[in-house]
Design brief:
Layout (H helix, E strand, L loop, with lengths): L1 H13 L3 E8 L2 E7 L3 E6 L2 H11 L4
Antiparallel strand pairs: 1-2, 2-3
Helix pairs in contact: 1-2
Length: about 60
């Protein structure tokens, strides 16, 4: 679990649009982010989350 948390914290630090990440359970990660408005999106794992961030958010 700590490895997953560290991986997610690393993703957060790369993408300043992310202001909060919630882990609901082992198959549900929710990212709260802002581009021009505040939004949220769900992912089933950190790999999916990272891929989406790379495609849709600007890196720090």
């Amino acid at each position: 679990m700590q490895d997953a948390i560290n991986e997610i914290l690393g993703i957060m630090s790369c993408f300043p649009a992310i202001y909060k990440i919630g882990i609901v359970d082992h198959n549900n990660i929710i990212v709260y982010y802002s581009d021009t408005t505040f939004k949220k999106k769900s992912f089933s794992n950190a790999i999916e989350l990272l891929g989406w961030c790379e495609e849709n958010l600007n890196k720090a």
